[in-house]
Here is the input.
Amino acid sequence: MDSTNTPAAALSAATSEDVLPDARLSLLGTLHGPDSARAILRHRGRIETVRRGDRVGRTTVAAIGEGVVILSRGEMAIRLEMPER
Here is the structure.
């Protein structure tokens, strides 16, 4: 399984309050295997692993790419990228 390299600062910030740009929802990493891709999200202070089609709050995981997740809510799309620092 291939994975993105999560910067050390992002790993440290993942469990700290109000450090990541959007403390309610942040992308921490992506994993890609032969069967499916997964994303590691920080959602409301908790770490979650999600797949395409999973619900996150009031959005649905529409796509997972290398270092990026696309969420959909009705006609709106939200792009989450891993923090640089």
